[in-house]
UniProtKB/TrEMBL annotation:
Organism for this UniProt entry: Aerophobetes bacterium
Domain Chromosomal replication initiator DnaA C-terminal, residue spans: 164-233
Keyword ATP-binding in record: yes
GO terms for cellular component: plasma membrane
GO molecular function: ATP binding; DNA replication origin binding; lipid binding
Short name of any one Pfam family annotated for the protein: Bac_DnaA_C
BP GO annotations: DNA replication initiation; regulation of DNA replication
PROSITE patterns: DNAA
Family the entry assigns: Belongs to the DnaA family.
Record keywords, A-Z: ATP-binding, Cytoplasm, DNA replication, DNA-binding, Lipid-binding, Nucleotide-binding
Name of protein: Chromosomal replication initiator protein DnaA
Domain of life, source organism: Bacteria
NCBIfam families named in the record: DnaA (TIGR00362)
Amino acid sequence: SIRDDKTIQFRKKYRNTDVLVVDDIHFLAGKERTQEEFFHTFNTLHEARKQIVLSSDRSPTEIPTLEKRLQSRFEWGLIADIQPPDLETRIAILKKKAAIDNIELPDEVAMFIAERVKSNIRKLEGCLVRLVAHCSLFKQKIDLDVASEILRDILPSRKSKPITIEMIQKAVSRYYKVKESALKGKKRIRSIAFPRQIAMYLCREFTEASFPEIGTQFGGKDHTTVMYAFRKIEERKNKNSALLNELKELKKLLKTL
């Protein structure tokens, strides 16, 4: 309106409304003339005891180049921090939507979709619509296999939990029946030194940690000790089938932690 010189029409329309709802109010940042006009619109509506609802991706004080007088007015009312729905809420949304449309949605399918769509409710409902449309068209029953197939191109796969040094130490300790404190200790007897070398090898294999960083997590070992352990296991694994099997079993164990 300001750009097109239609401020009079703007004022008539928005200063005589019962409820003013403005989405993404943070876009006022840096727009001096727009802020000026909105300031007076806000005051007019507030004095007339009308309702004003504003949404933003940050609190008023965090909006850059927003005039102080607008910041203070935005803080006059109730400020509610709206977070993305949790898993149970997302499942409830899907089940409610399905119930409204008389659709039988298995719990495991609702869980499957809700675990992968965490913040976008439109996408959450869109997945359900797509699944229902497909099953209706091809006369299929809604189940987990069908959902996985139909939604595979729009749903992200579940990201595996990142493997940490602590997880590796725990897995190796459990597998070789050695205390974690012993892995980090100084004893060099084979029953402890070998699992320690395995753990160091796996840390280098599955984490982004450097040799010095790994050494620090094993009681302050020198980086050359870690390098030696890595090379030793790397050389032996291809010549020793038993060792190779142990490494495979440890990798499986890590996935369960």
